[in-house]
Amino acid sequence: MHAPYEFSEADDSRIVYVRKVDVDDLPEDQQEQAEGALFLYAVHASDGERLALVKERNLAFILARQNDFKPVTAH
Fold it and tell me: Residue 54: enclosing H or E segment and its boundaries?
């Protein structure tokens, strides 16, 4: 028997989204800090707030998990 899993509001608050971001789309001060990278990976809260920018996708997932978040890929 399969019972549907009910997601509570608390579950949703721990989900973050990892998304590839073109450096050209970032503010100029952040572009300068990208050290020649063409793209970075952003970690976003479920409300869209950007929490972090990192150079590697794997690092974005590690960072999220180290902070007790559940990362998922967003397109």
Answer: strand 50-54
- Element at 18 (helix H, strand E): strand 15-22
Which residue do the tokens 């549907």 mark? 4
Provide the pLDDT for residue 4: 55
User: Tokens in use for 65?
Assistant: 């998990």
- Report the amino acid identity of residue 43: V
Q: How many CB atoms lie within 10 A of CB 35?
A: 8
Overall size of the chain counted in residues: 75
**Are 18 and 72 contacting, i.e. CB atoms less than 8 angstroms apart?**
yes
The 10s digit of each residue's pLDDT in 22-60 is: 999 999 999 999 989 999 999 999 999 999 999 999 999
pTM for the model stands at 0.79
Q: Are 21 and 53 in contact (CB under 8 A)?
A: yes
